[in-house]
Amino acid sequence: MPILDYGVWRGRPVRVSAERLDQDATSPHIHLFFDDGTGGHFAGTKRASINVKSLSTLSELVYWHIPDLRHPITDALRHLSRGFTPVESLPGGLALDYIRSNILDFEAGRILPHDEPGHIANDIIDFVLPELEAAIARRATVYLLGEPYSDRQGLHDIHMNQGSTERFAKYNGPWQDGAVILHYEAEDRFAGLFMAFASQAVHTDEVTGHALPGAPNFASYLGARPLSPEAAVPPAMPLRPDRRVVISGALVNPAGVENRPSSKGQPETVYLMNRSDEGLSLAGWKILNKLDEVRELAGDAWLAPGAVLAVPMTGVVLSNRGGTITLLDPQGLKVDGVCYTAAEAKPEGKVVTFRR
């Protein structure tokens, strides 16, 4: 079953420690101690335990650091009170999904071991610890997404919580991924630290969060391993998504009254670009908004080489308060995904463009 009590904990980070190889070679963690104003068992604080090694055959983690995070989730986080807030594992709110929130570029992930010797940054502790130490020194606010311990003295599962195999598959579920999100109030900047296990799949079921049959794991996707050691056969899906078609822009906030039958203005529109030198049929392709509402393309949808197709989002609303736009192929696999903030959507009649 998925994790039981998903949510986000807001506090102020006060100290951090990391378990090195000689301290715990099996299941080490980085422990971030934080103050949420209610005290705690750890010298007056609570504790977030961040995995830095997997118990599976592939022990490495995948790490993404976004120093200037701009995503609809940050607009929602800043309004939370200190302490733990339960979150429903559903799209459109505070729940995070590494695949469906369009918050990460998977190809930018870095596969890192737990603890390696040397004076250069070559393991996950070397990358994560300085970020947390800087957040403490600069008195940032921390938002921790994961599952609280039963005694409510902290939380864990601060990583991707879907696409796992074998004994960890029972914890899979969509819209329940963990993360460390930092807010530097002095400059009003958010930063995000995201972690997954190298053995987790990059494509998962919409309902169960289980790995789709034949889906590559991060190790093979990012080229760290030719194949998953747990797999008897090569992944049946392509290792990388077909990026011939991308979402190049969206008219989220048309001038005038939008989404009304009487409106005579331009409707909300998503622009798809064909980056290949071949024409492509888009029959059966789907565009999803942040609520996973679907706009399916017609059977005669065609995209010429280098062309841009304007798709009116008939019946599917693109929120002016920030949102996501996801493109799926006829098999339901994610081809591209983008996000935009409320600030980007505010100007009427302006197309929000996405760097590709």
UniProtKB/TrEMBL annotation:
Taxonomic placement: Bacteria, Pseudomonadati, Pseudomonadota, Alphaproteobacteria, Rhodobacterales
Domain LTD: 228-342
Coiled-coil segments: none
Record-linked SUPFAM superfamilies: Lamin A/C globular tail domain (SSF74853)
Domain of life from the UniProt record: Bacteria
Official protein name in the record: DUF2278 domain-containing protein
Pfam families linked to this entry: DUF2278 (PF10042)
PROSITE patterns noted in UniProt: LTD (PS51841)
